[in-house]
Amino acid sequence: MKSLFATGLLMILTCGLALAQEQSCALTQQTEEWKLAFVRNNNIWVSKGDGTDQRMIIKNGRSPYWSPGKNQIAFARSNNVWIAKADGTGQRPLTFRWGKKTPDLSAFGRPIDISWNSKFNTVTFSHWEEFRLERVAGYKGISRVLGWPQRNVIGNSILDVALDSVSQTLSVVRFDFYKDGTGYLFSSHSNPAWSKSGDKLAFVRNGDIWIAYVLEKEEDAVDDPRIWWDVHRLAAVASFDEPTWRASRENYGATHLSWSPDGRYLAYYYRRLQGSGVEEIRLIDMGSNENKLLVEFGREPAFSPDGQFIAYSTPEGCEKDKASCLWVVSIDGKIRKKLLDDADEPIW
After folding, report:
1. Which of 272, 290, 269 is nearest to 281 (CA)?
2. What is the spatial distance between Cα 77 and Cα 228, in angstroms, rounded to a whole number?
């Protein structure tokens, strides 16, 4: 009798009649059916959506991203983009052009960020590139990265690979330093995020959030699918400040984006680009343009398959000596639950 009473009490405490508790129960039941990929010790792991049944599928990989049907996974390795089956087998590179030499671009977020377009079956990614600039007068320029050759500038570009093309290893540049559609040149285009419909590409341009709407695609272009864009800035969230004798520089910007499945919301990671102090997950309502704080100490948001929850990494509430763990939060902020320890870069 005591055992039955204890079980009943536990059920009441876990799944009460309050809305928040009902959401928490729904979260527990639903996430078991979802597939979660994440990074641990530079290896890619998968688990059920609730963090159980963990297993490593890819050694030496980061920035995982599922294909629309969850039967393949793209990831970054050795400064290039790779692809594998969902169980980690059949690993092969999609790009070959970059060597292992990588500048410190931690201010921009991850060295490589990946998204998958369901409409055109392309893997889109951001990657650093080196550009050579010359002043006509012949003066030496300022190197973007210490130790890099003078007159060279390091920036981030957005490229993609068409998986059903004749040459799958041909990377097509979509946005880079020379893209001057606004009349200005921007050195950083990073963190691409396709909507589930495949007709909207969100990305970060010099710390601000921009949206590219796909208007048309020439179907007869095989290796270089020509896409016509309508591009505009969605959120001017970046803030840049030079260091002074009174204080260090404080630069802020968005570095990671994730769409809700219905395209109504766009979550992003807002952080201090040098140093520490600000790591927020914010949520933009595309209908009302409301931009609200969802998690005060969170990184790398990833929407759940039903669009009701966001997985994220955080140093808060982790086991001892663990730098990062994964949590999940409801989009109204009322439900928050830890999934697993010693992990980052979640993707559902």
Report:
1. 269
2. 31
> What tokens were used for 12?
């009441």
Structural domain harbouring 320: 244-348
Would you put residue 145 in left (φ > 0), alpha (ψ -120 to 50) or beta?
beta
* Residues whose CB is less than 8 angstroms from the CB of residue 82 and which lie 6 or more positions away in sequence, other chains included: 61, 74, 75, 76, 91, 92, 93, 94
In order of 76, 204, 226, 293, 303, the CA distances from 211 in angstroms are: 24, 9, 18, 20, 18
Query: Phi/psi zone of residue 312: left (φ > 0), alpha (ψ -120 to 50 degrees), beta?
Result: beta
Q: Is residue 181 assigned to a domain?
A: no
**CATH number where 304 lies:** 2.120.10.30
Cα–Cα nearest to 162, from 214, 108, 199, 125: 125
* Residue 238 DSSP SS3: coil
Sign, CA dihedral 160-161-166-169, equals positive
Give the chain's domain count.
1
Residue 173's beta-bridge partner residues? Answer: 159
Nearest to 144 by CA among 185, 106, 177, 103: 103
Question: How far is residue 346's CA from residue 44's CA, in Å, rounded to a whole number?
Answer: 10
Task: For residue 315, tell me if it sits in a domain.
Answer: yes
Please give the helix or strand (H or E) that residue 7 lies within, else none. Answer: helix 2-14
Q: Quick one: how far is CA 335 from the chain centroid?
A: 22
Taking only the tens place, the pLDDT of each residue in 299-340 is 999 999 999 999 999 998 898 888 899 999 999 999 999 999
CA distance 81 to 94: 5
Tokens at residue 16, please?
Answer: 């009460």
Is 57:45 a contact under the CB 8 Å cutoff? yes
- Give 20-69 pLDDT, tens digit per residue: 455 555 555 566 678 899 999 999 999 998 888 999 999 999 999 999 98
User: Which two three-digit tokens encode residue 176?
Assistant: 């880079």
In a domain, 112, yes or no: no
Specify if 140 maps to a domain. no
Q: Tell me the CB-side half-sphere exposure of residue 42, using CA atoms within 13 A.
A: 3
